[in-house]
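Q: Hand in one record:
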Amino acid sequence: MQAMRLVAILAAATAEVYAEGATRRLVISIPDRKVALIEDGRVVRVYPVAVGKASTPSPRGTFHIASRVQHPTWYHPGKVVGPGPANPLGTRWMGLGYKGYGIHGTNMPLSIGKAASHGCIRMRNRDVEDLFNRVQVGDAVELVTQVGPDLADAFAGPKAEPSETAGITVALATGVGDAQ
């Protein structure tokens, strides 16, 4: 009887998690340099971001949150930066299931709103911490160059200025694939 009760509880919890995950997604508008968190078809939050610069653009397409790391370690050939204020990944990493790409914080907050990264999506640390607490592994992430009419209002407002600001952002977080 105890075993059946445990199975019923686990089944209910699993169904709730899958149902919750199916209704949440992120849409990143590359030209608007913003990410919208959408739950149950409505925009919950919109955050400013930095995207890939022209020479190292952000990928386009549909991905998913493949990993979540608090206080990541940044790896680059010949250099490792542990958690802390000098870390280019900031305080959080959410891998996109696409080798070396993710959504992360930054140690260069002035780059937000610009095309400045090596392809990753950079966020202010306070924003990435908020988003990190709202998403789960498996949530869909769409990186788009055009926003449909259903989301046009969410991305309305002044566009961020273009920039070729240097800064290494594509990297590895502990447990994430190879850097570019």
The chain has two helices and 13 strands. The first helix runs from residue 2 to 22.
